[in-house]
Amino acid sequence: MSLRDRINNKMDHLQVLMEANAHIDRPEYVGDVISSVSKFWSVLSDEDKDYIHCSKHALEEKLEWKL
């Protein structure tokens, strides 16, 4: 599996968690997922970086994730 595939899988998983508002019910787990994908920061797309930034904000502030 390529690095890009691994990153995409982690980002897809983060998206599923955020859309399910798991960051409110399971903040530690979602924080771990965010950390696991953030370690690839230097190769992430701007879109992925924005998504991670917004996810961190929602996690820290316990905000509901709305589409």
Spans where pLDDT lies below 50 across 5 or more residues: none
Distance between the termini: 30 Å
Secondary structure tally: strands: 0
Helix count, DSSP H or I runs of 4 or more residues: 4
Please give the domain count. 1
Class per helix and strand makeup: mainly alpha
Strand content: under 5%
**N-to-C SSE string, H for helix and E for strand:** HHHH
Largest sheet, in brief, is:
none
Outline: globular
Share in helix: over 70%
What Rg is obtained from the alpha carbons, in whole angstroms? 11 Å
On the 0 to 100 scale, the average pLDDT is: 96
Give an overview in words.
- The protein has 67 residues and is mostly helical.
- The protein has one domain (3-61).
- It contains four helices and no strands.
- The longest helix is centred in the first third of the chain and has 17 residues, at 3-19.
- The protein is globular.
Secondary structure elements and pairings:
Blueprint: H1 3-19, H2 22-25, H3 27-38, H4 46-61
